[in-house]
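DM from R.C. (forwarded with permission)

"hey, sorry to bug you on a friday — could you get me a structure for this? deadline for the figure draft is monday and I only need the backbone to look sensible"
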Amino acid sequence: MKKWFLCGLGFLSIAVSLNAQFNENPILNKENEDKKLLNWGYFLGFNQYDFKFDYKEDLGPRGTDVLVSKSLGFNVGLIGEMRLNEFLDLRLEPGLHHTQRILGFPGFDDGNDPIREVKSTYINFPLLLKASAKRFGNWKPFLIGGGSMTLNLGSNEDSLDDNSAGTFRMKKWVYNYELGFGIDFYLEYFKFSPSIRGVFAITDELVRDNDPNSPWTGNIDAMRTRGIFVNFTFE
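My reply, with the result:
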């Protein structure tokens, strides 16, 4: 997670430096863009999701850790923004997030039983507060954060089968908080905003197996999503 934030910070810093170097006295684009009560747009981007596990017992060094293999996914969605004042905006960003994780469970000698492939398609509903700095020429940095609720279309929550039949189950609804930062660039015809954001689930997502002593879920106290988004917004 840290490397993603450092990469994003470096990317945004370079963008600001280049903008400052080549546009010391720029012609202002989209001067009235932020004065409207409502703004609309869309975003595209990519993500990397992980899981954070809490355990009931520590049975030895890494003896009970569930291993998570992560991959890149994609994001796409819409933006509705309401201006509160010069520096604050209320923002709704419904979007679709697709990702895949492979879980390796401990305590198995061999075979495929320890491995579960978790493909998730999330419909995310975040309500965010965007706090912007003063506009500098044709760019403006901002911080963004708030809460979100997420519908997991691949949860398998209602399935009667569990891990003993090869089915990994998660809850349909997840509640999160999100924090991030980015920069608004005012181009000639639209506003372009690259940003990086972390998402952290506050609710336990795991649906446990029917057997309370299940080797897959018996020792897990909580399983929560955490992830990072890099989004490119067009307004």
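R.C.: lifesaver. The longest helix spans residues 2-22.
me: no worries. The helical segments are 2-22.
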